[in-house]
TrEMBL record:
CDD domains: PAX. It holds the Pfam family PAX. This is Paired box 1. Its main location: nucleus. It comes from Xenopus tropicalis. Residues 4-130 form the Paired domain. It is found in: Nucleus. Keywords: Developmental protein, DNA-binding, Nucleus, Paired box, Transcription, Transcription regulation. PANTHER family: PAIRED BOX PROTEIN PAX-1, PAIRED BOX PROTEIN PAX-6-RELATED-RELATED. The keyword Ligase does not apply.
Length: 357
DNA sequence: TACGTAACGGTTGAG
DNA sequence: TCCTCAACCGTTACG
């Protein structure tokens, strides 16, 4: 994979189409917002489109997490062995049963809930492929398949209350659909704490104290999604710094950011996401490539390995902010937007090194 | 000017 | 192994 990854947006920032911003940047956005910096200023400071800033802040306010959602993958399977078993039972007890009737029974018997009950078509397929030939002649199925029962389809929407949480295999959540109110500080969704800004802050703190913190590593780690997935599944360590695992340390490491690291609010003003060394710093320099070559951020063996470039440092290198557009700094210091003043600082009792004031 | 959001082109990963 | 598809992404443009 070539290093030619990355594009430059209108603000001069570098991004990779289709890929999420590094967590460090995301965190930075939230931190700045909580410091009262207006979204438009954050956008300019970090050179991230305002739409993105808006989206990230909105998501954070809604979920408490700064992390991107899980990308790719499929819906969690609903036709689990248990479901199939029940369908088989229904079919055996009543060979003439309709798929939609089976569906209703699955719900009635609490085998499934409305979020994971198989669609009529799925049940039909199961009957045809897995059960039809086991219990009853397939001829039973076809004719009876109310092939389309649109009426029921709406029930089969996947949209779990919480899109990211659907106790999907991927997510591994224990509480699908759990939605945490914004105010609740950290973790929302299912990704337990690991994904919360607070946790990340904690991470940062950890990193700052870590021997390897500041190490110039730059290899990036595994995919963010992987990280997320791991964490979403429980993430025991998320709550305590000792639990710091790769997951914690490698938040956005999908991007080889040389100067990334979780930000330190203090550097906000002069902050520029991009390291001095190169304009594309956010994602690693030209040489670094936005994404680690070789496809896929293969996991690094050691979570805390050298790959992590999270140093107490800031996303922004102490570089003057080169604004293609203009320099706009905090004209209106306190944006009313921010309404969760302490969320970032209260978790883990880890104060934000807000030196920016 | 600031901001929310739809559209767009892109990536990802389970099936 | 390759393809499909639906999830997500960030940028852009519009109102």
């Amino acid at each position: 994979m070539e290093q030619t990854y990355g594009e430059v947006n209108q603000l001069g920032g570098v991004f990779v189409n289709g890929r999420p911003l590094p967590n460090a940047i995301r965190l930075r956005i939230v931190e700045l917002a909580q410091l009262g910096i207006r979204p438009c200023d954050i956008s300019r400071q970090l050179r991230v489109s305002h739409g993105c800033v808006s989206k990230i802040l909105a998501r954070y306010n809604e979920t408490g997490s700064i992390l991107p959602g899980a990308i790719g993958g499929s819906k969690p399977r609903v036709t689990t062995p248990n479901v199939v078993k029940h369908i088989r039972e229904y079919k055996q007890s009543d060979p003439g049963i309709f798929a939609w009737e089976i569906r209703d029974r699955l719900l009635a018997d609490n085998v499934c809930d409305k979020y994971n009950v198989p669609s009529v078509s799925s049940i039909s397929r199961i009957l045809r492929n897995k059960i039809g030939n086991l219990s009853q002649p397939s001829q039973y199925d076809s004719p009876k398949q109310p092939a389309s029962q649109p009426t029921y389809n709406h029930l089969y929407q996947y949209p779990y209350p919480n899109p990211i949480s659907p106790g999907s295999t991927k997510v591994g959540s224990h509480h699908p659909g759990v939605h945490m109110p914004t105010g609740h500080v950290s973790i929302a969704r299912q990704w337990p704490s690991a994904h919360s800004v607070n946790n990340i802050l904690g991470i940062r703190t950890f990193m700052e104290q870590s021997p390897i913190a500041g190490t110039e590593g730059s290899v990036y780690s595994p995919k963010m999604e992987d990280w997320a997935s791991v964490n979403r599944s429980g993430f025991p360590g998320s709550q305590n710094m000792n639990g710091l695992e790769k997951s914690v340390v490698e938040p956005d490491m999908k991007y080889p950011q040389s100067a990334s690291g979780l930000s330190t609010v203090g550097s906000f003003v002069p902050g520029c996401v991009y390291p001095t060394t190169n304009q594309y710093g956010v994602y690693g320099g030209p040489g670094a490539g936005y994404v680690t070559p070789g496809h896929h951020w293969q996991t690094q063996g050691n979570p805390l390995g050298p790959s992590v470039t999270v140093h107490g440092g800031d996303i922004a290198a102490p570089v003057t902010f080169k604004h293609p557009v203009r320099e706009v700094v905090n004209r209106k210091p306190n944006s009313p937007i921010i309404k969760i003043p302490e969320t970032l600082s209260n978790i883990h009792g880890l104060p934000i090194p807000a030196s920016s004031s």
